[in-house]
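Let's practice the habit of predicting before peeking. Look at the sequence and jot down your guess about where helices and strands might fall. Then scroll down.
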Amino acid sequence: MPLKLNVSLSRKVGEANYGSRGATVGIETEVDSGLMNQPQQLKEQIACLFRLARQSVDRELNCHARGDSRCANQNVVIGAEGVQIRLATAAQVRAIHAIANRQKLDLAEELRSRFGVYRPDDLSLDEASHLIDVIKPDANGSINEK
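Done guessing? Here is the structure:
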């Protein structure tokens, strides 16, 4: 029987003249109930869901702050502490896919285990750069495991 994980995250930010705006996201997924016997892996799954929820709320708040209806195309999000985070560029995302394909890497697993995300688009600019450095082959053709 599968185990259901539910994660919800809400955040409200203040605006001028005593105003505020908020965003809420809820994520539900099913995982193998065998994870109950593997607490570390279960915690990792939960952490991944919270990171995804946090990124979604950050994007939503950032887009509405700018009045931008193209929220999915934003390349900057406001992090939990109000710090702007630049997201991976389209060129970085393409490079990650190309290198992973050439190296026959399980990209989804690399992203999940290293960064807790499921898509290269959800990486920050720095995380994408780091991943490219790690998975691209060196002069000998081997991967730089860092």
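How did you do? The mean pLDDT is 79.
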